[in-house]
UniProtKB/TrEMBL annotation, chain A:
GO molecular function (one): NADH dehydrogenase (ubiquinone) activity
Localization per record: Cell membrane; Membrane
Source organism of this protein record: OM182 bacterium MED-G24
A GO cellular component annotation in the UniProt record: plasma membrane
Family: Belongs to the CPA3 antiporters (TC 2.A.63) subunit D family.
Domain NADH:quinone oxidoreductase/Mrp antiporter transmembrane: 138-431
Keyword annotations: Cell membrane, Membrane, Transmembrane, Transmembrane helix
Membrane topology of this protein: Multi-pass membrane protein
Record-linked InterPro entries: CPA3_Na-H_Antiporter_D (IPR050586), NADH_UbQ_OxRdtase (IPR003918), ND/Mrp_TM (IPR001750)
Name of the protein: Cation:proton antiporter
PANTHER family, alphabetized: NA(+)_H(+) ANTIPORTER SUBUNIT D1, NADH DEHYDROGENASE
Top-level taxon: Bacteria
Transmembrane segments: 6-27, 34-56, 76-100, 112-134, 140-158, 170-193, 213-238, 250-268, 288-306, 352-370, 382-404, 419-437, 457-477
Gene Ontology biological-process entries: ATP synthesis coupled electron transport
UniProtKB/TrEMBL annotation, chain B:
Protein name as annotated: Cation:proton antiporter
Membrane-spanning segments: 5-25, 37-56, 68-89, 109-135
UniProt organism field: OM182 bacterium MED-G24
Residue ranges annotated for the Na+/H+ antiporter MnhB subunit-related protein domain, each copy included: 6-127
Family listed: Belongs to the CPA3 antiporters (TC 2.A.63) subunit B family.
GO CC, alphabetical: plasma membrane
Annotated Pfam families: MnhB
Entry-linked InterPro entries: CPA3_antiporter_subunitB, MnhB
Parts forming coiled coils: none
Entry keyword set: Cell membrane, Membrane, Transmembrane, Transmembrane helix
PANTHER family: NA(+)/H(+) ANTIPORTER SUBUNIT B, NA(+)_H(+) ANTIPORTER SUBUNIT B
Protein localization: Cell membrane
Membrane topology value: Multi-pass membrane protein
Keyword Transmembrane helix: yes
Length: 497, 140
C-alpha cells in the first residue's frame, strides 16, 4: 500500500479540498461534482483518522511549508488537540456532504438550484479547507488567512438561501465577520510589534515577559474580541440566528457543525497555548468568560423558548451551547478544557443531526414555522425518532452524547467549587428541555390542519441523519474516543507551556 | 459610447500600454516591486476600460464568461500544482529548491509559476466580477 509520510498527509488534507474546489467550479454535472466532493470528504476523514492515530502514538509533529524553518517560515503543528478537532471537522463535513447529495435528486434540488450547485460544492470545499487550516496552523497570520478563506466561502453559502432575507443575513454576517477578522488582525499586528514574531510557539515564549506592556495587552484584547465575534459569544452573537435561519439547510448543517467549533478551537488555542494560562489568570479574562458563558446559556436558552421558527430556535440553542464551551474554557483547568472540547465534539454531532432532521421535515412542511410541523411525528415516524434522539442528546439525557459533556462540565465546575456555574449548567439543561419539548409537542401531539402530500425523502438525507443519531447514542455509551481523547488533548495543551 | 472620438482614441492608445504594464509587473515581479496580484489587477483594469468604452458585448466576444471561469480555476490549480510537485518529489509543500537541479534556478522557476497562477486567477476573477455585475444591470 502507498505509504505517505505524516507531514505530506497533513498538507494533503488541506490541499485536497483546496484543489478540488476550482475543479468543481468549472464542472457542470451536479452528480459528478457531488461525487467528487464526497470522495474528497471521505479521503479527508480517513486521513484525519490516520493523523490522530499517529499523534496518539508520537505526541505530535510539525511541518515546515516550503522547507523554511520556523520562526521565519510558516509552520503547521499537529498536536493531540488539533488532530482531535480535525477529526470532528472532517467527520461532520463528510456526513454533511452525504446529506447534500439530496441536491442531485430532482424533488429536493429546489434548495440550491442545479445551475449554481457546482459553485455551492466549491464553496463548501473552500470553507472546510479554511477551517482545517485554522486548526493545523502554528502561525497567527496564517490563521487569519484561513479565517478569511472559510468566512468568505460561508458568506457566499448563506446568501444561497431561497428567501431574499438570506441576502440580509449574509450581509450582516459579512459586516460582523469582517469586523471580527479585522480585530483579530489588529491584535496580531500589535503582538507582532511587541514580539517580532508570528509563530505561535515563539510568541508564547515571549508573551509572559511582555504582559505588563500596554501594547501586548491591547493586542491580546483585540485578538480575543475578534475571535469572540466569530465564535458568536453571547453579546456578540446577533449574526448567528439570522445566518443559520436563512441559509439553506445543506449550509446550516455544515455551519452548525463546524464554523463556531473552529472559532472556539482558535480562541482556546490563542488563550491557552499562545498567551499562556499563567498570563491569562492575572487578567479579568477567565472571570469574563465565565460570566458571558453563563449569560449565554441562560439568556439565549430563554430566547430559544420564545421562537416561532424552528431553525431560529435551534440557532439560539447553538449560542447557548457555545456558552457551555466558553464556561469550560473560562475555568482554565485541564478538566474544564476537556469538558469544553468534548462538548465541541458532542454538540457538533447533536446539532448537525437536529438541523438535518429539520431540513428533512421542511421538505414536507415547506416552511420552518414551528406550527407547520404539526403532526409530522405520525407522518414521518423515522425522522421524528431521530429528532427525539438528537433532542435528548442536546438536553443531556443519560445514554446520549450530550450527557457526557454536561457531566464533564459539571464535574469540572464542582472541582473548582464554582457552584454558581454548576447551577447555570443545570438550569441551562432545564431550559433546553423546555424549548425542545415545544418542538416535540408540536410534532407528536398536534394535528395538522391541512393534509400534506407524501413525498419520498432522498436516501442521502436519511442515511446522514441516522449516522449522526446513532453516533449520539454511541458516544453517550462509549467515551473511549471522545472524552478520553479530549482529556489527553487538554492535558497535553496545559503541559506544553 | 462609440460617438466619443477622444475617448475611443485615447482608450485604444492606452489599453495596449496598460496590458503591457500588467505583463511587465507580472514577469518582473520576482526582481522588483510587483507580482501576480498587482499584475492581475492592472491587466484586468485594461480590459475593463475596454468594456467601459466599447461595450460589454465586445469584451464578452473577446473573453467569454466560460473562459473566465476556467481561467480563474486554472490559476489556483497552477499555484497548488507547483507546490504539489515538491510534495510528490518527496519534499515539503512549496519547496521550490526541488523544482530544478540547481536550487537557485528552482526558486526562480517556483516563484515564477506561482505568481503566474496568482496573476491568472486575479485577472480573470476581477473580470468575472465586473462582467457579472455589469451584465446584471442590463437585464433591469
Amino acid at each position: 500500500m502507498l505509504r505517505v509520510s505524516d507531514g505530506a498527509q497533513l498538507i494533503l488534507i488541506i490541499l485536497l479540498p483546496l484543489v478540488v474546489a476550482p475543479i468543481c467550479y468549472v464542472l457542470r454535472s451536479v452528480r459528478v461534482v457531488w461525487l467528487l466532493t464526497l470522495a474528497t470528504a471521505l479521503s479527508c476523514f480517513l486521513m484525519s483518522v490516520g493523523l490522530l492515530l499517529v499523534v496518539l502514538d508520537t505526541g505530535g509533529f510539525s511541518y515546515h511549508l516550503g522547507g523554511w524553518a520556523p520562526p521565519v517560515g510558516i509552520e503547521y503543528r499537529l498536536d493531540l488537540l488539533s488532530a482531535f478537532v480535525l477529526l470532528v471537522l472532517t467527520a461532520v463535513f463528510f456526513v454533511c456532504q452525504l446529506y447534500a447529495g439530496s441536491l442531485t435528486v430532482a424533488s429536493s434540488s429546489k434548495e440550491v438550484p442545479p445551475a449554481i450547485a457546482p459553485a455551492f460544492f466549491a464553496a463548501t470545499l473552500l470553507c472546510i479547507a479554511g477551517l482545517m487550516g485554522i486548526v493545523v496552523t502554528g502561525d497567527v497570520f496564517n490563521l487569519f488567512v484561513f479565517l478569511e478563506i472559510s468566512s468568505l466561502a460561508t458568506y457566499a453559502m448563506i446568501s444561497l438561501g431561497r428567501d431574499r432575507r438570506a441576502l440580509t443575513a449574509a450581509f450582516q454576517y459579512l459586516v460582523l465577520g469582517t469586523i471580527g477578522a479585522t480585530f483579530f488582525l489588529i491584535g496580531v499586528g500589535l503582538l507582532y510589534a511587541e514580539t517580532g514574531t508570528l509563530n505561535m510557539r515563539e510568541m508564547s515564549m515571549l508573551i509572559p515577559d511582555l504582559v505588563d506592556r500596554q501594547t501586548a495587552f491591547t493586542g491580546m484584547t483585540f485578538v480575543i474580541i475578534g475571535l469572540a465575534l466569530k465564535l458568536a459569544i453571547f453579546p456578540l452573537h446577533l449574526w448567528l440566528p439570522n445566518a443559520y435561519t436563512e441559509a439553506p439547510s445543506v449550509v446550516t448543517v455544515l455551519l452548525a457543525g463546524t464554523s463556531t467549533k473552529v472559532a472556539f478551537y482558535a480562541l482556546a488555542r490563542m488563550v491557552v497555548s499562545v498567551f499562556g494560562v499563567e498570563t491569562v489568570v492575572e487578567t479579568p479574562l477567565p472571570r469574563l468568560l465565565l460570566i458571558v458563558g453563563s449569560l449565554a446559556v441562560l439568556f439565549t436558552s430563554a430566547q430559544a423558548i420564545l421562537q416561532a421558527n424552528v431553525k431560529r430556535l435551534l440557532a439560539y440553542s447553538s449560542v447557548a451551547q457555545i456558552g457551555y464551551m466558553v464556561i469550560g474554557l473560562g475555568l482554565l483547568t485541564t478538566e474544564g478544557l476537556a469538558a469544553g472540547f468534548v462538548h465541541l465534539f458532542n454538540h457538533a454531532l447533536t446539532k448537525t443531526g437536529l438541523f438535518m432532521a429539520v431540513g428533512i421535515m421542511m421538505l414536507v412542511s415547506l416552511d420552518a414555522r414551528l406550527s407547520s410541523l404539526a403532526g409530522l411525528g405520525r407522518q414521518m415516524p423515522w425522522t421524528s425518532a431521530a429528532v427525539v434522539i438528537t433532542a435528548f442528546s442536546l438536553v443531556g439525557i443519560p445514554g446520549t452524547a450530550g450527557f457526557i459533556s454536561k457531566w464533564a462540565l459539571l464535574d469540572a465546575a464542582l472541582a473548582q467549587e464554582a457552584y454558581l456555574i454548576a447551577a447555570v449548567v443545570v438550569v441551562g439543561s432545564l431550559l433546553a428541555c423546555l424549548y425542545l419539548l415545544r418542538l416535540l409537542d408540536v410534532m407528536y401531539f398536534q394535528v395538522s390542519e391541512k393534509p400534506r402530500e407524501s413525498i419520498t425523502i432522498p436516501i442521502h438525507m436519511v442515511t446522514a441523519l441516522w449516522l449522526l443519531a446513532i453516533a449520539c447514542i454511541w458516544f453517550g455509551l462509549s467515551t473511549e474516543y471522545s472524552l478520553s481523547v479530549a482529556k489527553l488533548a487538554a492535558a497535553s495543551m496545559m503541559e506544553s507551556l | 459610447m462609440t460617438d466619443y472620438l477622444i475617448l475611443r482614441v485615447t482608450a485604444k492608445f492606452l489599453i495596449p500600454i496598460i496590458l503591457l504594464m500588467g505583463l511587465y509587473v507580472q514577469f518582473h515581479g520576482e526582481l522588483g516591486p510587483g507580482g501576480g496580484f498587482q499584475a492581475g489587477v492592472i491587466f484586468s483594469a485594461g480590459l475593463i476600460l475596454y468594456a467601459l468604452v466599447f461595450g460589454l458585448d465586445r469584451l464578452s466576444d473577446a473573453v467569454p464568461i466560460v473562459a473566465l471561469k476556467v481561467l480563474s480555476s486554472v490559476g489556483v490549480l497552477l499555484f497548488a500544482g507547483t507546490g504539489m510537485i515538491s510534495v510528490i518529489v518527496g519534499g515539503e509543500f512549496l519547496d521550490y529548491n526541488l523544482l530544478a537541479e540547481d536550487p537557485v534556478a528552482g526558486q526562480h522557476l517556483g516563484i515564477f509559476l506561482v505568481e503566474l497562477g496568482v496573476g491568472i486567477t486575479v485577472a480573470s476573477t476581477m473580470l468575472l466580477i465586473f462582467t457579472l455585475f455589469a451584465a446584471q444591470n442590463d437585464h433591469v
